[in-house]
Amino acid sequence: MGHQSSFHAPEGGVFLGLRQGRTGASEIVYDDGVARRLVWRVSSQDSRAEDIDAALRVAVSNHRVVPTLYAELKKRSIAIEAVLR
Q1: What is the rounded CA–CA span in Å between residue 47 and residue 80?
Q2: 1, 10, 37, 66: which has the fewest Cβ within 10 Å?
Q3: pLDDT in tens, the chain (85 residues)
Q4: What confidence score (pLDDT) does residue 46 get?
Q5: What is the total count of domains within the chain?
Q6: Domain encompassing residue 18
């Protein structure tokens, strides 16, 4: 994919990003700026970066970021697997 993007919540603090991991797979990173950092590997081979970006953009603008992220990825048929919890 080779695509990287990042999004911050409008009120600050929460970060969501898309990066290429060490193995070359796309990864989604969540950081709440205080205590929680989560990383998921995108396991759907046919996922487009634009679709993932759209899901991240919607999730980061919602108060409940992680549940919204899961819902938006599911809506777009993008499968993920936890790497870091």
Answers
A1: 10
A2: 10
A3: 456 777 777 777 889 999 988 888 899 999 988 889 999 999 988 888 899 999 999 999 998 999 999 999 999 999 999 997 6
A4: 84
A5: 1
A6: 5-84
